[in-house]
Amino acid sequence: MSNTPHTLKDEFPGEEARITALKTSDSRFASLLEEYDVVNDQVHRAESRIDTVSEEHEEGLRRNRSRLKDQIAAALRATV
């Protein structure tokens, strides 16, 4: 697996201003961003073999990151 961090800037290019605006106006969205960053860091550490985790746990982290990314994308779409 790739050990490239999936930062929100990379995942949503050109959306920095909207992400910042929504983060300051919506506490639920801000919590999603915080949770994404925590899980994304855990995935990166597992993929880089900094932290030793089972394949199942690593896959679960990836699924969780994907779920959070989908929720962030949905929130961004809702503010168009």
From TrEMBL:
InterPro entries for this protein: DUF465 (IPR007420), DUF465_sf (IPR038444)
Top-level taxonomic group: Bacteria
Stored Gene3D superfamilies: 6.10.280.50
Protein's name in the database: DUF465 domain-containing protein
Coiled-coil residue spans: 36-78
Pfam (any one): DUF465
Keyword set, alphabetical order: Coiled coil
